[in-house]
Amino acid sequence: DLRFALPFSPVLGYPNLTPKEMSLNIDPAEVSVPAAGATITVKIVSAFESKIAFKVKTSNNECYRVKPVFGFIEVKADSPLEIMRLPGQPKEDKLVVQWAEVPAEETDPKAPFAAGAQQGEVILPLKAT
């Protein structure tokens, strides 16, 4: 869904997004990294009133590594996400953070995704220059 790739506008907000879709964001909303390689950290920020499980995917597994791939974010909290760009050709890619609300007692962040319980996703544009 491409509407998640749109940057935030102080005037327009996030076009066509419901409050639930705006409840999980990545800070910053877009990232530039050197094509020669670098490691950066962003935050996955949750405004949910419940615990969230997340799974991170990338459009370019040859050039990017992320840590953690799966994880939890507690109620209205955030989680650091380390993104490593390996040396490669300059290009534009994206990270997709899929999410699902889970019970507070859930201990396996992979479980909701194995069960097909994904509820949404947020896209982080990556630009290697």
Automatic annotation (TrEMBL):
Q: Which InterPro entries match?
A: Ig-like_fold (IPR013783), MSP_dom (IPR000535), PapD-like_sf (IPR008962), Sperm-specific_class_P (IPR051774)
Reply yes or no: does the keyword Repeat apply: no
Which intervals hold domain MSP?
23-129
The cross-references to SUPFAM superfamilies, in alphabetical order and at most eight, read: PapD-like (SSF49354)
Task: Enumerate the transmembrane spans.
Answer: none
Q: What name goes with this protein? A: Major sperm protein
Task: Tell me yes or no: is Cytoplasm among this UniProt entry's keywords.
Answer: yes
Arranged from A to Z, the UniProt key words for this protein are: Cytoplasm, Cytoskeleton
Pfam families linked: Motile_Sperm
Q: What does this protein do?
A: Central component in molecular interactions underlying sperm crawling. Forms an extensive filament system that extends from sperm villipoda, along the leading edge of the pseudopod.
